[in-house]
Amino acid sequence: MRVKDAVVLRFTQLMEQRNIRPNELANLAGVTPSTVYSMLDARRREVSINVIKKLCDGLGVSLGDFFSAPVFESLEQELK
């Protein structure tokens, strides 16, 4: 699994746990809904740490807690 896929999976898990939709996450994080949908789009390969931080802030999750999830423990190397 690549890091972008892991980030999407983690946000999806957090939204499901809190029973919120992407539009609600955008409102909580103070970003546009298109920012959230863009991050969730599998065709996009990049996501910025600034967007991750804003979404984490909206969910009340620290970056440390976000990245301590098991999904991040065995990521592929992304060297090209």
What report would you give on this structure?
The protein has a single domain (3-70), classed as lambda repressor-like DNA-binding domains (434 Repressor (Amino-terminal Domain)), CATH 1.10.260. The longest helix is centred in the N-terminal third of the chain and has 16 residues, at 3-18. Helices cover 60% and strands 0% of the residues. By secondary structure, the chain is mainly alpha-helical. The mean pLDDT is 91.
Brief account:
The chain has five helices and no strands. Helix 2 (22-29) packs across helix 3 (33-40) and helix 2 crosses helix 4. It has 80 residues and is mostly helical.
Q: How many strands?
A: 0
Strand percentage lies at under 5%
The biggest beta sheet is recorded as: none
CATH homology-level superfamily: lambda repressor-like DNA-binding domains
Radius of gyration equals 12 Å
Low-confidence runs of at least 5 consecutive residues:
none
Structural class: mainly alpha
Count of helices?
5
Roughly how many Å apart are the termini?
15 Å
Mean pLDDT across the residues is 91
Estimated helix fraction = 55-70%
Number of domains: 1
